[in-house]
Amino acid sequence: MKTSIGIKLASGFLLTAVLSIVTAGLISNYMIDKRFNQYLKRSHENRIQKVVKTVEDLYSSSEGFAKLDPFEMRRYAVLEDLYIEIRDREGKTIFSSGQGHLIHKKGMGNMMGPMMGRRMTDRVGEYIEEKHSLKHESVIIGTIHIGYFGSWNLTEGDIGFKNTLNQAFALSVAIALLLGLTISIILSKQMTTPLVSITKAANEMKNGNLNIRAEGTVNTLEIEQLARAINYLAESLQQQDMMRKRLTTDMAHEIRTPLTTLQSHIEAMMDGIWEPTVERFESCHEEVLRLKKMSDSLQDLAKLEQAAYPLNKSTFDLSKLLDKIIAAFQAQARKKSIRLLSNIEPGLIVEMDQDKVKQILHNLLSNAYKYSEEKASIEIGLERDSHNIVLTVRDQGAGIDPKDLPYIFERFYRGDLSRNRGTGGAGIGLTIVKGLVDAHGGRITVESERGKGSSFKVFFPIEILLHHEKT
Predict the structure, then answer these.
(1) pLDDT tier, 364 (very low <50, low <70, confident <90, very high otherwise)
(2) pLDDT > 70: what percent of the chain?
(3) Which domain covers residue 267, as residue numbers?
(4) Is the pTM of this model over 0.90?
(5) Bigger pLDDT: 280 or 379?
(6) Are 99 and 83 within 8 A, CB to CB?
(7) CA 363 to CA 334: how far, in whole Å?
(8) Beta-carbon neighbour count of residue 457 at 10 Å?
(9) CA atoms of 214 and 272, how far apart (whole Å)
């Protein structure tokens, strides 16, 4: 059974928080408890030394332990929860506080309720008795025996502090876990909500709804990039679908017209209405040529679907090649009295695919010719700079609508101005040009203004230039 990413993220965050908090809590509790025990040990040792010092101060060389007040010493032992026994140097007991008060409290701990009983039991522990020498002016004057329950004779305040410390750690861990759970749920929702939207949009696209978009803004860079990629994919697919539908409509219209003409001409000659004259056969031949032209366009489209354009590179003079192509195009330009103006930098020897370069310039010139009015001008330029060899084709035609500029290199795309019968095509000429330019490692740009013409620039990398012959 598969688990949603939200549950996985929340579980992962929570598990990380639990492990981190428990680990930090255990380490902190261990270190603090260790330091506190060290403090209790030093405090207990100081208390024992204080008892020894107090008894030693009660001794005098002339009177011995005559200053020792048994009542006060017994009261001190009860207050400190200690058993105190003082012996002289011969081992004779001078004073004993008795162990009644200690035994009484140990018994009280066992008889108390569960909570207090545990606290008292933890406090008293096992009975321990220490023996220390009593000295006066560096001379041993006797011994003192000090007994108590527990390792360090903890007081109620000491035990209370330790219990409070442990409870504080337990409460901190509980609160931290609750906060970790809350934050993990919030973070998982913040991450999964846009992913759910993106998944929904992708499924809608799969089902054919290309108008769907992944909505919502997120602060996560990767998710935002994914949403933009999905939206861009939807827009691209929508654009491709629109262009395919337009291509189907245009091609159906273009094919239907010559077929209808051929059908009417042939039926008229078969029925004896028309005589089969040379002029009428020429008219049928023109329609056949139109069909062949459309067939060639579809063949070019099939080539366009290939993964890459194979290049057959050779060394040649690019400047002379462009001059020849422009000279060959002069005959077609005269049909509309179009002037071809060239500014070709001479002597550029390059290593490129010569046939592909011819196809690039021929397509650009044909495109400029189609949309140029009579007696207009077409400028062709070739120059080099520090980074590129730049080929420019500028016309004075109708120009390109700004809304069409981002799509003119897309396959099948034709702007509204190119859909008339006189200039119509399959919409793949510029796409082929771009593919050939990309194959040479270059790039193509266009600048256009409605009613003033268009300017296409092809940038080939300077690395294709072998040398420059000055003429």
Answers:
(1) very high
(2) 84
(3) 220-305
(4) no
(5) 379
(6) yes
(7) 18
(8) 16
(9) 65
